[in-house]
Input
Amino acid sequence: MRIDVLTLFPEMFESPLSHSILKRAKEAGVVDIVLTNIRDFSKDKHKKVDDRPYGGGPGMVMMCQPVFDCFEQVEKLSPDKSRVILLTPQGKPFTQKLAAELAGEKRLIFIAGHYEGFDERIRTGLNAEQISIGDYVLSGGELAAMVIIDAVVRLLPGALGDEGSAEDETFSEVANGGMEYPQYTRPETFQGMKVPDILLSGHHGEIEKWRRQQSLERTRQNRPDLLKNQ
Ligand code: 6GU
Output
């Protein structure tokens, strides 16, 4: 997969992309992530990328020109058809299901904005879909882009060392769309807290049953909304 990110702050991506799974996936050739600075495309003499909104109101709006010119150059760096994603709190909610869908694409282009928002013609003119990572407001789309990239890349074949580990987890089909069951590792007792006996019993059927109950109970406690759709 190829991922392009158009941003005013490419440096923000350096640390997340150089650790753990994202780093490994890049090194293994599973994903190629290319950052491009929108400001480099501003034709303004002060490299301006935002302006005041028509009709008045607070804040600044990302201008069309630098984004369109940046997009035009980036798009032609690869022949693959791309899905264009605008990060905004008005977008459709990002979910594990959408992550899996995006993981099936050959190419993604993310456009991260700052300021109060984008000139609407960026969305319409570039045929971009809007995605939000939750019901709260971030000061820019960069952190949201990183969240989405992380969730998508770890689903790509070869990104995780242990191929099974993306299947059992929270929100997956194995977890029945709910929370994952509690996990324990050595030692058996830590500061007086014991690992549940059932996990040491060797009764695989019973262990599976216990895990299903725990999953369900956790989902009921923390995310009852997920059970209503079943
Ligand atoms: Cl994608 N962008 C911004 N600025 N805020 C958000 C968001 C995105 N998703 C949730 N809040």
The mean pLDDT is 94. The two ends are 34 Å apart (CA to CA).
